[in-house]
Amino acid sequence: QVQPVESGGRLVQAGDSLRLSCVASGRTFSSSTMGWFRQAPGKEREFVAAIGQSGYGTLCTDSVKGRFTISRDNAKNKVYLQMNNLKPEDTGVYYCAARTGIYARAHDSDYDYWGQGTQVTVSS
C-alpha cells in the first residue's frame, strides 16, 4: 500500500553533492518508516539511512555519517537523501524502501515495499 519510486541518481565526481528523492504513493505514507539502501556490483545490498515517523528519529550507517542526511516531507509523500562529499565507494544502485512503523529501522528484511532503484556513480 506504499509504493516507492526513486529518482535523482547520476554520474558525479568525487567530492560532489547529490540529492535523491523518493515518492511513495499511498495514503499511509505518514504512518511509514522509510529507508535508503544501496548495492554495488558484486556486493550485497547494504543499509544507508532510515527515518521513522515524524519526531521519531533517524539512523545512518557509519560510512556515510556526517555526509548523508535523510529527511521526509509527509505533505508530499516524499523522502530525500542528501549526499555530500561523495566518494567512489558510494557508487551503487540506491533503493528506497517502506514499511508500516514508527521508528527508523536498519535491516532490509524489516521493509515490505521497494522501489526499482536509481544509479549513483561517483568517479575519481
Describe, in plain words, how this protein is organized in 3D:
By secondary structure, this protein is mainly beta. Helix content is 0%, strand content 50%. It contains no helices and eleven strands. It starts with a strand and ends with a strand. The model has no long low-confidence stretch (mean pLDDT 95).
How is the secondary structure organized here?
Layout: E1 3-7, E2 11-13, E3 18-25, E4 32-39, E5 46-51, E6 58-60, E7 68-73, E8 78-83, E9 92-100, E10 113-114, E11 118-123
Parallel strand pairs: 2-11
Antiparallel strand pairs: 1-3, 3-8, 4-5, 4-9, 5-6, 7-8, 9-10, 9-11
Number of strands: 11
Main sheet record: 7 strands, mixed
As a percent range, the share of strand residues is: over 45%
Q: In one word, what is the shape?
A: globular
Low-pLDDT segments: none
Give the oligomeric state of the chains in this entry, treating copies of one chain as homo and distinct chains as hetero: single chain
The helix/strand order is EEEEEEEEEEE
* Cα-to-Cα separation, first versus last residue: 40 Å
Mean pLDDT: 95
Helix content: under 10%
- Computed Rg: 13 Å
Secondary-structure content class? mainly beta
Number of helices: 0
Protein traits:
single chain; 124 residues; mainly beta; seven-stranded mixed β-sheet; four-stranded antiparallel β-sheet; 11 strands; 0% helix; 50% strand; globular
